[in-house]
Write a structure and sequence with these properties.
Elements: H1 27-41, H2 58-61, H3 64-75, H4 82-97, H5 103-116, H6 119-123
Length: 124
């Protein structure tokens, strides 16, 4: 949590860390958050495990737009900004079309990590 810019019990005020992210984040913390998102989504984080292959419906895992919608619904529980959704769908589409990447699990893992690292998730 220290690497993510919000160490446990480090904020002295009872209201917690401020909503204004400039008070608690920087590029290093954002990179650490993205790396942690990748560890979580690929079951590389100690103490966490997710059944990635059963996280979203099978038909959604084959369509980048549906995959982003399912991941957002699962992780954020509300709509995200249209520009943010466009970026996530674009990234998922590029990955789905990239023949060097290994299959649906990689697409799903990366999309989940991107949603976890997205600005709308960070605000929640």
């Amino acid at each position: 949590m220290n690497q993510l810019g919000e160490g446990l019990y480090q904020q002295q005020f009872p209201t917690g860390y401020p909503e204004d992210s400039t008070k608690w984040t920087n590029t290093g913390a954002l990179l650490a958050r993205m790396n942690q998102s990748l560890r979580i989504s690929s079951n590389g984080a100690n103490g966490t495990w997710i059944d990635i292959d059963h996280l979203v419906p099978v038909e959604a895992a084959k369509d980048p737009s549906m995959l982003v919608d399912e991941a957002v619904k699962l992780l954020i529980h509300t709509e995200i900004s249209p520009s943010e959704k466009e970026v996530l769908v674009k990234q998922a589409t590029e990955m789905a079309n990239d023949q060097k990447k290994p299959g649906q699990t990689a697409l799903l893992t990366t999309t989940i990590a991107l949603v976890l690292g997205s600005p709308d998730f960070q605000r929640r």
